[in-house]
Amino acid sequence: HVQLVESGGGSVQTGGSLRLSCAVPGVSFRLGCMGWFRQAPAKQREWVAAIAPGGHRDIADSVRGRFTISRDNPKTVYLAMNNLKPEDTAVYYCAATKLQCGTAWSYGGFYPYWGQGTQVTVS
Asked: What's the rounded Cα separation, in Å, for the pair 46 and 56?
């Protein structure tokens, strides 16, 4: 059983910052691509960012210049969020796969492993 543990969500004012973390403790195999998605109330899940084990990364246009994805070891990924806006309010999910990142890294179906989600509220 692969467990993704997210932390770092919370409530901030517009313009504030948060840093989300996602750890995958106890996994017995090498993780490949890891990503972040979000889902706002009454909206579809949206891809936010993804990163390969070697550091190659991509980020959605809606958050480019404000959010940064990073990975300091194969089992932990971060999402630094700056200049937060009310439209960033959502539940943020971490996702992982054994596969290497590629053209499918922005699709939820690419990732078989998901975290429980962490709420981010910007007011």
From this structure: 20
Q: Return the percentage of the chain with pLDDT > 70, whole number.
A: 100
Q: Where residue 72 falls among pLDDT bands split at 50, 70, 90? A: confident
What is d(CA 23, CA 44) in angstroms, rounded to the nearest whole number?
25
Pairing verdict, β 76-81 and 18-23: antiparallel
Q: What is the mean pLDDT of the chain?
A: 95
DSSP assignments along the chain, one per residue: ---BEEE--EEE-TT--EEEEEE-TT--S----EEEEEE-TTS--EEEEEE-TTS-EEE-TTTTTTEEEEEEETTEEEEEE-S--GGG-EEEEEEE-SSPP-TTTT-GGG-SEEB--EEEEE-
